[in-house]
Amino acid sequence: MGMRSAATVIIFVGFCFIPGALSIRNSSCPRICTPHGFGDPVCGTDGYIYPNICELKKKTCGKGVNLSPDPDLCHRHSGSKCEHKCGNEKDPVCGTDGRTYLNRCMLQVEICRLDIALSHVGPCNNISAHRENCPVDCKQAPQDGPVCGSDGNVYKNTCQMKLLTCGQGVVRTNKKYCQTTRHCRESCWRNARPACGSDGKLYTNVCRMKSKNCGKHVFEVPMAYCVTQERTSHSIGCPVSCQNEIEKPTCGSDGFIYKSECELKLLNCGSNRRVSRVDFDKCRNKLSKCLKIKCNNDFDPVCGTDARTYTNNCQLSLATCLKGIQFAHIGNCTALKDQEPCPSDCDNETGEEPVCGSDGNAYRSNCHMRKETCGQLVIQVDSHHCRTTALCNEKCSDDRNFVCGSDNKIYRSECEMKRDNCGKHIYVVPMKRCISGFLFKGCSKICPTYYDPVCGTDNKTYSNTCFLDIENCRSRSLVNMKNMGTCAEPINEIPKNYLY
């Protein structure tokens, strides 16, 4: 009897330590990861590359794998095998090797293997940018827009994109890469939290507001600006501004903390949002939690859905915690009622530099921005917020890391290439495009710097096939390729992660 009890205990202890028991699915693990969102590919502590943080948590649920604090863990120079767990999502991107990859994750694997980089989102343009055929006008063009271009700008249709960016090699990309098209195809839940748009219209919720205004700069503003459209007179007397109000923290029945009772009414006007003031003790836990957010005073203003300008994103995050304020747009908030007259002609604007708009688009000048976005409350913001103006004012280092631009010019670095082409879609292409016009004598050749080792028949490892070709030329065809990979670690076949 005593022996049987002991055996039972041993079996029970053994059962508790079965490895499989530790990997039982945690309730916090995501079951579904949508193709859109969740960010860029990430490196796990297991050394694998995952499409995004959601896929990492989903595929490693209960296995103790986390986001690697050192992203270089998934790079070849750290001993990585460049293994990956990429999906088959079709979201083409172009690498600096001139090849198109199925998605960002597949490119990340090649970045690990060859140390290349992302050239631009969207497929590579096989025709030299300066030789592409451009439309003369778009009067008869199909209205297939709005279109998100690889330069980060939104266009009315494909024809307009080609017309305005002629010779820049701009291609059509996934709508998620542009600010005003990001929510175009989003499936909206039947959430009955009404939202007031900057166009003065009342929407069922924020999601419907954004999806119905695909390609337009429409953002959420305080409910007080839309209550006049309601059928009932329940909301008469709603405050439009609380600037002169004395700040007195107020706890709302929705669990949020407002600066004053005026602000509570401003953000919750109308018969659909009945929020009242309650005893502040009910909000003390919320206050202690939010005050743990510590922010600096770095100046990069953003506008919140309360029509207030915040110093930076962190300050907005604090407001989100306290009273549920969301991001409206980058830059300072604009006057919602008083709008400046729109210019009708910008042909005489000379000397103006490209500007970045709060809608995420880059424009030829401030005048062009006001003309093309008339009535959409778009303002000029810091240049780093737009893709083609991000490096306009950058101070580039003197390091020489020569690149070939899509305009077939050689630049000292990618930074200088983008700075010198402020507002234009100039991207990195394979160096051979820029040196094809040069004439080399004998076995002279300029080779790319990426590391994709091959082993020669002389049992020496070469950085890539280009260097092997030079040796083959010098030795008069005595040295050929023995195998891919290093001589110590040969591989059977060439990895192919690209489409074409």
Radius of gyration: 29 Å
**Helical stretch count?**
13
Class computed from helices, strands and strand pairing: alpha+beta
The amount of helix comes to: 10-25%
What overall geometry do the principal axes of the alpha carbons give? globular
Determine the mean pLDDT. Answer: 84
Instruction: Estimate what percentage of residues fall within beta strands.
Output: 5-15%
Q: What are the low-pLDDT stretches, counting only 5+ consecutive residues below 50?
A: 1-25, 229-236
Main beta sheet: strand number and arrangement? Answer: 4 strands, antiparallel
Q: What strand line-up does the widest sheet have?
A: 25-24-26-27
Find the count of extended strands (DSSP E, 2+ residues): 27
Distance between the termini: 72 Å
Pfam families: Kazal_1, Kazal_2
Protein name: Kazal-like domain-containing protein
Signal peptide: 1-23
InterPro entries: Kazal_dom, Kazal_dom_sf, Prot_Inhib_GrowthFact_Antg
